Amino acid sequence: MIECKGLKKTFQSENGAFEVVKNIDLKVKENEFLVLFGPGQCGKTTILNMIAGLETPSEGIVTVNGKEVHEPGPERGVVYQTISLFPWLTVMGNVEYGPKVRGIPKEKRRATAQHYIDMVGLQGFEKSFPVQLSGGMKQRAGIARAYANNPIVMLMDEPFGALDAQTRYLMQKELERIWEQEKRTVVFVTNNIEEAVYLADRIVVLANRPTQVKAEYKINLPRPRNYVDPEFLRLRMEITDAVDKTL
Amino acid sequence: MIKSQKEKIQRVLAGLFSIGAFLALWQWAVVSTTLGQLMPGPITVITSFIQAFSVPIGTCTIQQHVGWSLSRVMIAYLVAAVVGIGLGVLMGWNPKIEAIFKPLYDIIRPIPPIAWIPLSIVWFGLGEMTKYFLIFLSAFSNITLNAYEGAKSVDPVLMGASRMLGANRTQTLLTVVLPASMPFIFAGLQVAISTSWATVVAAEMVRSTEGVGWVIVSAQDTNDMNQTLVGILAIGIVGFILATIMRGVETRLCKWNKSE
User: Fold this and answer.
1) Of A32, A42, A29, A19, residue with least CA distance to A205
2) Which residues of A touch B180 (CB under 8 A)?
3) Residue A132: count of CB within 10 angstroms of its CB
4) A138 with A89: CB under 8 angstroms?
5) What is the ipTM of this complex?
6) In the predicted model, what is the mean pLDDT of chain B?
């Protein structure tokens, strides 16, 4: 499905070459929810951007469904941390943007957009502009916009990082509900362990400087998960300990 | 920012008060000091201004003079807007286009439009074309600069999002760079409407037989202070109305940019 082989990324700085990402090998299965988990400033976003085609790897290749990735493309949907909604478009305008630029006729794209607006629970806000929405609602719209292009892969870069704790819990539950409803292959980046254990089928723990794979955990807990279930807490503890050693 | 009705009324009253005080001071100075020998008071000027709607100054009534000047401004301003927005956004968006056109633009930009008067007369004669050219120059540089700044400051995350959603480069330019630059473009359009209006007066003072600039020049020739002041009043009022209209259009089109 998604395959990263020997991914490397180096940046040139005044003090010479600076290795951000080192030898990442990753395989993500169809409809798998993979979480990339690692400390603050590591190259998680860089890895995601290379899968997206927004950054070019210095070495190695990314393939999605066997096709090599060289540039951005609509079969890979992205949900960002920062608010990336187009502020001059309404919720409807944002959600139908993808189908619109790809030339889908108005009636068809409206129906698709409406379906996903309903799915993320934003019905009634179709004509609202992003400034009129709360942080959680903006991310709902961002998820609907990514879904409306019917991508085979969803790339999520700390989508809930800027939300308050209460909204964040709610959005984790919402995302799981949405994903159960319409499954996609997901690569989800976070530095929040609770979020990782709650959402992931598999967690890839990344070590810092340069970013490389440190450990992997399969999470087999039944969904929807309970944040205070003993097994949940045990896994959370185990992974936290493993990460602390890498810092 | 939501203002209460009461605050709005207070603001309007404060403005009316200062205008009223200015007119009262002027009237007093004309009646009580030697200023009265040099120029008429506001009552005389406003009366003449109102009369000028029916009694022509030269060949035209005051509203016809304003109409002439406005039509010159509109034609040149529209051309400047299209060229300026196009060039500015393209320069801000594409480094190659920027490398080619920006240095030339940077040299032309600081030249005041009236410095072009002798050359433009040689090129275009004394007719309408010279006036269009001068107004175009005065509007063009502001509009281009602001459109350029706007396109430069577009959030790269938005451009990336648009590419990821399937837009090609041209679609990204038209559906992301252009709308994201709109607040900047409107700032430029607003400054440009004021400079265009100022330039049409200068251009008409060079040579014309009608227009608000002509009203002032012909008054100068006959030493008619009253007519000069009628011309100035007309220029001020129209300038104020144009700026107000532009602000209104901006508020409507850039609604998304006003938070809360």
Assistant:
1) A42
2) 86, 88
3) 15
4) no
5) 0.86
6) 91
